[in-house]
Amino acid sequence: MASPSEHKATIIDGKAIAQTIRNEIAAEVHHLSQKFNKVPGLAVVIVGNRKDSQSYVGMKRKACAEVGIKSFDIDLQEQVSEAEVVSKVHELNANPDVHGILVQLPLPKHINEEKVLTEISIEKDVDGFHPLNIGKLAMKGREPVFLPCTPKGCIELLSRSGITIKGKKAVVVGRSNIVGLPVSLLLLKADATVTVVHSHSHDPESIIREADIIIAAAGQAMMIKGSWIKPGAAVIDVGTNAIDDPSKKSGYRLVGDVDFKEACKVAGWITPVPGGVGPMTVAMLLKNTLDGAKRVMEH
Asked: Percentage of the chain with pLDDT > 70?
C-alpha cells in the first residue's frame, strides 16, 4: 500500500488533448477543401490594443493557420464608435466566406458589449455568447447552435479523460457569463448535480469539499486549497492569474485558482496552469468554426 503522502493525481494534459483535436480538425478541413473547394473562415474582431487581448488574438489567428481555417483579421481603433463595430459585424454576417465571428472581449468602456454580441448572427456565433445561444443552453430539450469555447473545453477534458459526469456532484466556483454560468448549465445538461459557489456564498470550503468534480473559474490565485478537495475528485482549473516571481525573467508566473501542488496530493485528476484549459479553449473555437462551416456547406 502506498502511503497517502505518495498519492499523485493524474495530470490532465490539455495541451496534448487539444493537439489531438486540432489534428482531427485539420483532417476535416482538408476533406472540406477537397470536396467543396472551400475552407472554413473565422473573422476575429479586436478593438483597441490591450496587450492581453492582442496576444489571445494572435494565438487564435495562428491556430487557424495551423489547421487550414482562413482567418479574417479585423483590427479596429480604440476610439471606434459602437455603430462602426456593429456595421462591421453586419458586413461579416453577410460574407459567405465567414463561418464564424469572434469579437475579442473586453471591449472599450464606451461600447456596449451586449449590443455588439447580439448583432452577431446566431449561425456564426462561434464564441457561443449570443443571448439566444445561452438561453437555449439553459433550457431542457433545446440545443444551442454553438457552445461557449471554454466551458465546452472543460467538458471535453472530462470526457476524454474518461471521467463520468452523470449523477456526480459538481461544484463550479465563479459565475461569470464566459465560464461559470455556462459551464454549470453544461454540467446540468450532462446530468450532474450542480452547485455554484460565488463571492456571496457562505463557507465555500465545505461546499467544495463535497464535489466529485470541481470547475474553478473564480479568477483568484490559489484560492482553493488542497484540504478543500475530496480525495479522488476531478479538478478542472480555469483560473489564469499572474503572481510575482522574481526568479522568472518576466517577473511573474501564472497560477490557477487551485493550489496545484497541494491538490495533486488529494485529487484524482487535475489540469495544470498553464497547459490545461487554455489550449482547449482555442481548440474548441476551431471546432465551432468547422461545425459552422459544415452546416453551411453540407446543406
From this structure: 98
User: Using an 8 Å Cβ cutoff, are 36 and 29 in contact?
Assistant: no
The answer to whether the beta carbons of residues 214 and 236 sit under 8 Å apart is yes
pLDDT tens per residue across span 116-132 = 999 999 999 999 999 99
166 assigned to active site: no
Tell me if residue 127 is catalytic.
Answer: yes
pLDDT of residue 299: 82
Q: Which three cell numbers stand for residue 76?
A: 479596429
Q: Which segments within the chain are labelled E, that is strand?
A: 10-11, 41-47, 70-76, 100-103, 169-173, 193-197, 213-216, 234-237, 241-244, 252-255, 269-270
Mean pLDDT of the region 200-210: 98
Residue 90 · residue 45 · CB < 8 Å: no
Please pick, among 88, 104, 230, 257, the residue that the annotation labels catalytic.
104
Residue 34 is a catalytic residue:
no
Report the C-alpha gap between 185 and 144 in whole angstroms.
Answer: 12
Which of 70, 88, 124, 127 is flagged as catalytic?
Answer: 127
Q: Mind listing the pLDDT tens digit for each residue in 151-179?
A: 999 999 999 999 999 999 999 999 999 99
Contacts of 242 (CB under 8 A, 6+ apart): 252, 253, 254
Distance, CA of 197 to CA of 206 (rounded, Å): 11
List C-alpha distances in Å: 226 to 38, 151, 260.
50, 23, 8
